[in-house]
Amino acid sequence: MRIIRHPKKKSLKGSVVALGTFDGVHRGHQVILQQAVKQAKKDKTASIAITFDPHPQLLISPERGLKLLTTLTEREKLFCRYGIDGVVVIRFNKRLQALAKEDFVKKYLVEKIGASHVFVGFDYAFGKSRAGDVSQLKKLGKKHGFAVTVVRAVSADKHVIKSKVIRELLSQGKFNQAVQLLGHAYQIEGVVVRGSGRGKPLGFPTANLRVANNKLIPAHGVYAGLWGEKKCAVNIGARPTFGAGETAIEVHIPRYKKNLRGQRLNLILTRRLREERQFSDVEKLKRQIAKDIRRL
């Protein structure tokens, strides 16, 4: 898969495009991507995912403090998983924000890409003040010579699957339900930094992870995870047994003894084992950690 930051004029002419921000690359997004890949194979051309970085809402409504389900790197890996041939990353800035809907279509889908077919979600909006909707995109497609397919909403557990819904579930501690809507495990990547040093004396040394500021961290609790093929326990929380206050991400990899400080870890959280609890003494905490590890 190719990552294309600045495509040359019509260098991808004839490509089938999946268009959206795709934060989370959830089950609804996956249908868009899969349909685009299928169409591209039928047309014997390339499938391209167009995404935006930073997320438009971070610029349009910074006061919301939006937290992302996926960093750009995580998104790109997921695009690859679902068969996309290439990713075009469009930098979202004030100039793009001010671009009228038809100018956006003409500049990016027509002149930059030369798209033959564009796939979007049912609620896709584009252009200045999100003035363009899917019906207008279809009209512009006819005018400029590309087909448009609008993918219907995907629902599960009485929810229309949307990034906003998944963010809410993760923040509420409903991790396992959120993963069902995502359609894949939750990713966290970051750099190992110096921690409090409490894990090693307990017999459970941990690597403390520093992640991107705008990455959504699931609700406090203990999670089962994977680092490559190695199982790990991930504690997200304020360590109330020790009276600490700041949220930390602590990773224990059973039977792994090497120092990971300074390294970048890519973790996959598969399920939530339990909520964060305060223990009356350290021995009870140690017994609980041992139980958690047996459940990995």
Automatic annotation (TrEMBL):
* Any GO BP annotation: FMN biosynthetic process
Which pathway is it part of?
Answer: Cofactor biosynthesis; FAD biosynthesis; FAD from FMN: step 1/1; Cofactor biosynthesis; FMN biosynthesis; FMN from riboflavin (ATP route): step 1/1
Which EC class, in a word?
Answer: transferase
Q: Which reaction does it catalyse?
A: FMN + ATP + H(+) = FAD + diphosphate; riboflavin + ATP = FMN + ADP + H(+)
Record keywords, A-Z: ATP-binding, FAD, Flavoprotein, FMN, Kinase, Multifunctional enzyme, Nucleotide-binding, Nucleotidyltransferase, Transferase
Q: What is its EC number?
A: 2.7.1.26, 2.7.7.2
**Which GO molecular function terms does the record list?**
ATP binding; FMN adenylyltransferase activity; riboflavin kinase activity
The Riboflavin kinase domain extends over 181-295
Q: Which family does it belong to?
A: Belongs to the ribF family.
Record's protein name: Riboflavin biosynthesis protein
